[in-house]
Amino acid sequence: MASKTLLFLTAEQIQRLHLRYINKPLPIQLNMLESAIHSPIDMEHYTKEEDVFQLAANLAEKIMRNHAFQDGNKRTALVAADMFLKINGYYLQKVPFAEDKNDKELSNAHVAVVTNQWTAKQLGDYYKSIAVPLGPATTEVTEYIS
Is the residue at 140 inside a domain? Predict the structure, then answer.
C-alpha cells in the first residue's frame, strides 16, 4: 500500500501566517525560517518519518528554537504546525488563539519545549492526542495547499 504524499509549508506561507495571526514584523533571520521549514522535510526524507504529528512538532520546535522572528516565534510555531496538520487532514484549533482549554494547553506545551521540559517527540504525541480530522478543507486551508 502506497503511503500518502505529505504536503509541506514554504517560508512564504509561514510568513503569511505570521502576518495574519501575529501581526508583527516579518522574519529578521529569513535563513533561520528556511532552516526550520526544511527540517520536517529532511526528517521525512532521511528518517522515513511519516507521522504528521511528529513532523508538525519538528516544524514547531525548529521555528521556536531558530527564533527567525523578533517576536511571536512560539505563536508562529503553533499556527504553522496547525496549518501543516490542516493541509494534511487534521487540525489542532478551529480558531487560532481562541480563548479555550486547547489554546492554553497548546501554549503551555510550546513553552515546555523551549524550556527543555518536553522534547519535540512529546509535543508530537500531545498534538496527536488532541488533533481532530479536518473534514472538508476551508478556503483558508486551500490557500496553503501548494
Answer: no
φ/ψ of 25, rounded to 5, equals -55, 155
Per-residue pLDDT tens over the stretch 98-116: 887 788 999 999 999 999 9
Q: How many domains does the chain have?
A: 1
Segments of the chain assigned E as strands: 90-91, 132-133
Looking at the DSSP assignment, which residues form a beta bridge with residue 90? 133
Q: Residue 56 belongs to a domain with what CATH number?
A: 1.20.120.1870
C-alpha cell at 102: 486547547
CA angle 110, 114, 116 (to 5 degrees): 115
- The pTM of the full predicted model, rounded to 2 decimals, is 0.92
Rounded to 10 degrees, the C-alpha dihedral 143/9/91/71 comes to -100
